[in-house]
Recover the amino acids of this structure.
């Protein structure tokens, strides 16, 4: 592999799922639900496959889905997008993120992002030969919510910055960025003429009444923001890989220029099914969000009973757990040994940091699993003593 990709190896999610499967362990590592999405969504896609929606969809996506995404963001966030020029369908959010970075970051350009950070960001910045500038999220002293130091962010964003990546709701910390936090990001982007790339794949999965605010809704941001989302988390169909990028036409067109040679187009039948679900399955999505909030509390209680220090998730479907109260100090070692000793797989959080030492004492557990699975995992962890 090319030099700039050396060191990336196998993704931690693939590795932990492989180890969990080999050992027959409960997999709270890779973030995917163990129940299906809405029945009508699955049947809609199956019917369309049988009815012959089996050839290439248009590269930018089926217009039905692009129109549905535009309508959905219009209704929920007040954002206006022309489906023809400002919405582009990708193979999951992953391809949307990759195409956006490859389309807009020149070699040597700096990209500011918040760590712990989702693994694909660093890889695509490296592919683009950009320079990663992480700003570390840390648990605040009063409520354990992960947040950043405004001065650190202000120091990181400079005229050398080409792009800032904002993931909210955030994987792995569960932080939902507040309007005030976003306002600072927005101001720094405007002042330094920086493009924002947002990863909003968990946009529907927020808890305790906390609202997701897209960065693009802040003053002066719609014209400089590419927003990425996907159907995988919203409808519990992570294997479908239907995602989308929205933003101003010139930026979306840059994404299109690159993406047409990465994947050309995304799955066709699933696009049509997702288009219908965005409007038709809103009740299902709300019920799923409420169910996940209860699962968060269920797993948090189980992890606390097992002796972990448990973080606070306002959104997404992960809990950060501090392993120091258990007498451990290396999450990578503990995560691998838990698979065999407890039959439970988690993800060592240090992989989400530029400097592994920042996250050495943390492991991430996914709670998007059936209640009985969460209970069994908690019981196994507790029995370790
Ligand atoms: N961004 C984040 C923060 C994620 O957690 C994930 C999925 N785990 C993705 C992007 C990738 O989304 P998709 O499966 O739609 O490619
Ligand atoms: N986003 C999922 C997670 O954080 C994993 C996706 C993947 O395996 N690439 O666990």
């Amino acid at each position: 592999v090319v030099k700039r990709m050396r060191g990336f190896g196998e993704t931690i999610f693939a590795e932990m799922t492989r180890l969990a499967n080999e050992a027959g362990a409960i997999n709270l590592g890779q973030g995917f639900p163990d129940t299906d999405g809405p029945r009508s969504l699955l049947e809609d896609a199956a019917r369309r496959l049988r009815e012959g929606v089996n050839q290439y969809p248009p590269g930018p996506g089926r217009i039905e889905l692009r129109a549905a995404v535009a309508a959905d963001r219009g209704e929920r966030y007040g954002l206006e997008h022309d489906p023809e020029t400002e919405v582009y369908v990708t193979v999951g959010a992953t391809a949307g993120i990759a195409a956006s970075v490859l389309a807009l970051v020149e070699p040597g350009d700096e990209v500011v992002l918040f760590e712990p950070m989702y693994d694909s960001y660093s890889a695509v910045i490296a592919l683009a030969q950009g320079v990663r500038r992480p700003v570390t999220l840390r648990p605040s002293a009063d409520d354990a919510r992960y947040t950043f130091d405004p001065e650190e962010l202000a120091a990181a964003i400079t005229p050398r910055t080409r792009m800032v990546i904002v993931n909210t709701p955030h994987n792995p910390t569960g932080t939902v960025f507040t309007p005030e936090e976003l306002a600072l990001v927005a101001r720094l982007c405007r002042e330094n003429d920086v493009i924002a790339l947002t990863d909003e794949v968990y946009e529907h999965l927020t808890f305790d009444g906390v609202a997701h605010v897209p960065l693009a809704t802040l003053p002066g941001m719609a014209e400089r923001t590419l927003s990425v989302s996907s159907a995988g988390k919203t409808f519990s169909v992570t294997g479908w890989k239907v995602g989308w990028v929205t933003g101003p036409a010139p930026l979306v067109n840059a994404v299109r220029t690159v993406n047409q040679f990465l994947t050309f187009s995304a799955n066709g039948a699933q696009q049509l099914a997702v288009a219908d679900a965005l409007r038709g399955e809103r009740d299902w999505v709300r019920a799923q969000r409420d169910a996940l909030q209860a699962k968060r509390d269920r797993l948090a209680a189980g992890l606390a009973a097992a002796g972990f220090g448990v973080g606070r998730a306002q959104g997404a479907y992960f809990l950060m757990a501090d392993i120091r109260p258990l007498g451990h100090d290396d999450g990578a070692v503990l995560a691998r040994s838990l698979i065999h000793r407890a039959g439970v797989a988690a993800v060592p959080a240090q992989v989400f940091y530029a400097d592994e030492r920042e996250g050495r004492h943390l492991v991430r557990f996914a709670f998007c699993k059936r209640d009985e699975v969460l209970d069994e995992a908690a019981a196994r962890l507790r029995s370790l003593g």
